[in-house]
Amino acid sequence: MHYAQQEYSVRLQWGLPAVQHLSAQAAHCVIVDVLSFGTSVDIACGNGAEVLPYRFRATGAADFASEQQAILAAERSHHQPSLSPASLCRLKAGSRLVLPSQNGAALSLVSESESTIAACLRNAAAVADYLDTMGGDVLLVAAGELEADGRLRFAYEDFIGAGAIIQRLRRSKSPEALAAEAAFELARNDLERQLQYTASGAELVARGFQDDIALAAQLNLSACVPVLDDGAFRAGREMAAA
After folding, report:
1. How would you write the chain as a 3-class SS string?
2. pTM beyond 0.85
3. What is the mean pLDDT of residues 11-34?
4. Per the CB 3.0–4.6 Å rule, which of 29, 72, 190, 206 could disulfide with 113?
């Protein structure tokens, strides 16, 4: 495939088609969904919980959560566990959370890489260090946003989130990866304002979820590396041991 970037160790592509066609060609598939799946997974796993990704608005979610002895996350709420990162800050260790998402969760479920990682700005440095320790080629997938008609929309927050990871990796990088790194370097000193003026951020502000943006803009605050294992994201054992 002309867009596979196979000559580089660090690659960047967008959305579901990238995961479907390219994840099997990389040791690691890093799903970057800053607003909000990646940030939510980081916070939940950082608290010692497990996150089970689930397709957005797919049937059977309640039954699946019951079978897994898990909490079913709401779409976005201030008052119960949901796709809102702020709602997960008090999630208890040992909890299991079924987290539907039309972007991050959907991409995670189709990845064929040896390891699939949920990433955001909060855990960018931890994810990069984990990748350096583990070795192997890396495919970073910026989740983007899906329009109502199913078309994929560029999401600036995911582009700079990927760039935050890429800038710490010391391997050959594709032009697309280098572009994300450069975008992050330009934005890194003003992340919260940058995020709140994106299309996704402006929507969250309008809906009263400004706290989610503040959490998502916290760069390198988390040491958690959520790795997908048997259908659930858990903090990577190597990082947990550290």
Report:
1. CCCCCCCCCEEEEEHHHHHHHHHHHCCEEEEECCCCHHHHHHHHHHCCCEEEEEECCCCCHHHHHHHCCCEECECCCCCCCECCHHHHCCCCCCCEEEEEECCHHHHHHHCCCCEEEEECCCCHHHHHHHHHHHCCCEEEEECCEECCCCCEECCHHHHHHHHHHHCCCCCCECHHHHHHHHHHHHHHHHHHHHHHCCHHHHHHHHCCCHHHHHHHCCCCCCCCCEEEECCEEEECHHHHHC
2. yes
3. 97
4. 29
> Burial letters for 115-132: b for 16+ Cβ neighbours within 10 Å, e otherwise?
bbbbbbbbbbbbbbbbbe
Structure confidence at residue 237 as a pLDDT band (50, 70, 90): low
Report the length, in residues, of the chain.
Answer: 242
Q: What percent of the chain has pLDDT over 90?
A: 91
Amino acid at 66: S
Q: What are phi and psi of 183, to 5 degrees?
A: -65, -40
pLDDT of 2? 55
Neighbour count for residue 136 (Cβ, 10 Å): 13
Q: Using alpha carbons, list the distances in angstroms from residue 3 to 7, 74, 148, 161.
A: 11, 36, 26, 21
| Residue given tokens 């903090």 in the structure block | 235
